[in-house]
Structure formats: C-alpha cells, structure tokens
Amino acid sequence: MEEMLGILLQQEKELHFNRFDSEVAWKIGSWVVQKARKEGLPIAVDISVGARCLFHWSSNGAEVDNEKWIERKSRSVMRFGHSSYYLGRRLVHENVSAAEKHYVDEADYAFHGGSFPIFLRGTGLIGTMAVSGLKQEDDHDLVVQALSRALRKQDSVPSLKNN
C-alpha cells in the first residue's frame, strides 16, 4: 500500500501545467471522449477550474449517479489537494473513515478514484479533471493517461498498472 501511495503522490508531482485554459481542457476531454467511444466506456467526464466547467460529457451508457460521483470526488480534491484515489487509499491504509479523519459527510465528499487535481506551475491547485463510470482504479488511470498525454509525459509518469 505504501508503494501505491508513493506512486499516486509522484503522479501528482509530475502532472503540472504551464498554462491551462478552455482550449487545453477541450483537447484533453476530446481525447477521453474518442477513447470512450472507441472502447464503449460508460463514463462521464468533467474538467473544471474553480467553479467554472470547461468540459463535460456523458456517454450514452453513463448513469445519472456518475454526475454525483464526479461532484463528490472533485469536491474532495479541491478541499484536500490530492487525487480522490490517493485520499481513499490513504484512508484504507490508515484504517480510518473520512468522517473520523476529516470530519466530513460522505454524502458530500467521495474518496474513490477518478478525480485528479489540475496544478498550474507557480499557482498550485486550480481545478479538477474527473471520470466516473468504471472501477475506481480505472477511472483514476484514465484521467492520469489523459493528463500525461496532454503534457507529453506518457513515458515518465509512473503508472499503477504495472504494480
């Protein structure tokens, strides 16, 4: 588990943007949509900066609940500054609930994989990219793939798939 947490933190350290705007969000989101259509993935995807949604899409196979999962996972990322998968795995590792550790209601926050912080160099956390509809580790991995691809770091960002 400690190795996984280390990989998740390394992903966060590596995936920082020099600039992030609507055009960048469109390119990243469009790549996810193409992949989802090609592979028949029943997902919703959201890219937001602060309270501003820059990209949002739901496949025909996605469920209404995916939207709520995105909201809750992204709220966790914005509050705690880490990917929702890291936050959830850390809770499991520490054998503690979100309510016990963070004093939050899990009706409002979700500590499951799929939302990742968007970091801007020189500024810090500015937003989130989230996917919902797959297993939590696959939601997380799809986001990391998309961000790594956008930053041209596919070969340098550590992956959980090989561990």
- List the quaternary state of the chains: single chain
In the CATH hierarchy, the third-tier topology is known as Beta-Lactamase
Order of helices and strands: HEHEEHHHEEH
Q: Give the mean pLDDT.
A: 96
- State the end-to-end CA separation: 11 Å
Instruction: Indicate the proportion of strand residues.
Output: 15-25%
Radius of gyration: 15 Å
The major sheet is characterized as: 5 strands, mixed
The overall strand count is 5
Biggest sheet, strands in spatial order? 1-4-5-2-3
**How many domains comprise the coordinates?**
1
Which descriptor suits the 3D outline? Answer: globular
Separate helix tally: 6
Kindly state the percentage of residues in helix: 40-55%
Which structural class matches the secondary elements?
Answer: alpha+beta
Can you name the CATH architecture? 2-Layer Sandwich
The CATH superfamily is known as: Haem-degrading domain
Give the CATH class.
Alpha Beta
As residue ranges, the low-confidence spans are: none
List keywords for this structure.
alpha+beta, five-stranded mixed β-sheet, 48% helix, globular
Describe the protein in words.
Helix content is 48%, strand content 18%. By secondary structure, the chain is α+β, with helices and mostly antiparallel strands. The chain has one domain (2-150): Beta-Lactamase, CATH 3.30.450. Helix 2 (22-39) crosses helix 6 (136-150). The longest helix is centred in the N-terminal third of the chain and has 18 residues, at 22-39. It is globular, with a radius of gyration of 15 Å.
